[in-house]
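Below is a filled-in request sheet from our internal design queue. Each sheet records the structural input a requester submitted and the sequence that came back. We keep these sheets so that new team members can see what a complete request looks like end to end.

REQUESTER: design group, bay 2
PRIORITY: normal
MODE: inverse folding
CHAIN LENGTH: 289
BACKBONE (tokenized):
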């Protein structure tokens, strides 16, 4: 079974280069301070940098979802604050004529509606459409794409492959029942220290068994960049987790990831190019046998 999809002018999936989604955080509470762009000027600079470095998509988050038990920052989680930050972002990128697809990371259908009306083409819902009963309908009304992260009751609360498959199937059903196109669905297993019960080995086991998600038939996105499970092994803070992130990213691509969500577009692109080249050689050798 070949997994292929397209959003805007970007095709991705099997036999395509690994797509790169650059992360921009608009909240000062984000766990990796190097990802924050909270003024029009810094937003424009970051977007232009990502485009020049080879990003295929940009994912924008207006409130921090970093778990409080791991990070000290406290965010203003009000809808009004989230909307204001999103407004500043879209006003800023109007001035630079951004052409690549924009994804907005939100669990609120009100924010999704505002973002899609403002020019976003994708919603990244870390609850898998389960936090807001109106989210699936909103995405469908705009004929937008959606990234569904594995979630049972709260984001990241499933961390065994068998449970991830169960919850992603439920999210897929929510999406399809609302009229979201099959070609517009992307799956995310939800790597990272979302809940205290997760252990470091859980995330590494997900990466190791990532190919099992292929049975669902949709493109796979992973967010590894600078997360706590990298720091747990390297003993380093988010600012120093780039190299560990690239190592885990390379393994994830080899095991089936189609899209990499990252804070570090240029460095991640190099890792993707190397693994994609290796995969192409293996595929050619297999076809000759």
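RETURNED SEQUENCE:
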């Amino acid at each position: 079974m070949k997994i292929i999809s397209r959003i805007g002018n970007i095709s991705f999936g099997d036999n395509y280069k690994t797509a790169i989604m650059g992360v921009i955080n608009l909240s000062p509470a984000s766990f990796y301070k190097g990802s924050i762009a909270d003024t029009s000027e810094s937003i424009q600079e970051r977007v232009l940098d990502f485009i020049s470095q080879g990003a295929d998509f940009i994912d924008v988050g207006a409130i921090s979802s970093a778990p409080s038990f791991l990070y000290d920052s406290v965010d203003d989680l009000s809808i009004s604050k989230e909307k204001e930050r999103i407004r500043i972002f879209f006003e800023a990128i109007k001035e630079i004529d951004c052409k690549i697809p924009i994804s907005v990371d939100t669990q609120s259908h009100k924010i999704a509606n505002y973002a899609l009306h403002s020019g976003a083409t994708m919603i990244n819902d870390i609850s898998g459409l389960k936090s807001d009963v109106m989210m699936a309908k909103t995405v469908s009304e705009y004929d937008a794409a959606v990234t569904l992260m594995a979630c049972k009751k709260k984001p990241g609360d499933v961390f065994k492959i068998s449970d991830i498959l169960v919850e992603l199937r439920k999210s897929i059903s929510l999406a399809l029942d609302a009229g979201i196109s099959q070609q517009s669905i992307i799956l995310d297993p939800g790597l990272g220290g979302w809940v205290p019960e997760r252990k470091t080995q859980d995330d590494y086991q997900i990466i190791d068994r990532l190919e099992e998600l292929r049975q669902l038939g949709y493109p796979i996105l992973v967010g590894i960049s600078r997360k706590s499970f990298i720091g747990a092994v390297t003993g380093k803070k988010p600012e120093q987790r780039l190299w560990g992130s690239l190592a885990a990213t390379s393994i994830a691509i080899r095991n089936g990831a189609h899209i990499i969500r990252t804070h570090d577009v240029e460095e991640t692109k190099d890792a993707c190019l190397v693994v994609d080249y290796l995969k192409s050689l293996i595929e050619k050798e297999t076809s000759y046998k």
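SHEET NOTES:
- The first helix runs from residue 40 to 53.
- The chain is about 40% helix and 15% strand.
FILED BY: M.R.
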